[in-house]
Amino acid sequence: MNRNLTLIRSVFTMLFVLLFFYAECQSRILTDTRDGNTYKTLIIGDLIWMAEDLRFQTELSHCPNHSLEECKEANFYSYKEIESVCPEGWRIPVVEDWNNFLETFEDAETVRMMEGNKKLFRVDFLDGYNILTRNTLNIRPVGRTEGDVWQDGYYADYWTTNPEIKDPRFHVHVSQHSISGHAHKHNINERDEEKNRKFAVRCVCERKDN
């Protein structure tokens, strides 16, 4: 009898957890239960995207200029934590997810000038088409951190995964007129913390209603 009761409780607990994460993923507002931060979300195809940069603090994360106040806008993370930094039920985007995001741009096919192969992943837009002022995900030029220095400017860098390249350091650069992605060891390692780069994160979640 006790075993059956325990089994029933376990099943109900599992269902509750699944329904909870289902609701979190489907909601227009994501609430990160780890710290209470909330994020606007946007549906693109079969995915729900965070429409804001992740702000969750970890032992390795780095606010701009080490300022907790500036972490209200974005946080920067090491490649070593991309498997665990997103909220439960969410994940780092893959390259194909970014391709689907590109389809949301107005006249996307017309303004694209060049597309590289998936291993390099590069898409250029006409010079008169500023990606950072026209994208649906509200991506802003938050830059990155390099050691103790915040490298702000006209771009944003995001951790990504590419199934065709088994390298956890794959990332995308979003600038005014292009989005490109690659993996490299330059300034992304543990040997020289003063130059080690950390990038922003946008998490995605599969829709459950299609």
What would a concise description of this structure say?
The chain is of the alpha+beta class.
Notes on the structure:
The protein has one domain. 20% of the residues lie in helices and 22% in strands. It has four helices and twelve strands. A hairpin with a 2-residue loop joins strand 2 and strand 3. The longest helix is centred in the N-terminal third of the chain and has 25 residues. The chain is globular. About 7% of the residues have low confidence.
Keywords:
210 residues; 5-stranded antiparallel sheet; 4-stranded antiparallel sheet; 22% strand
Instruction: Tell me the helix content.
Output: 10-25%
Number of strands: 12
Main structural class: alpha+beta
Bulk shape = globular
- Please mark out the parts with pLDDT under 50 across 5 or more consecutive residues, or reply none: 10-24
Mean pLDDT: 82
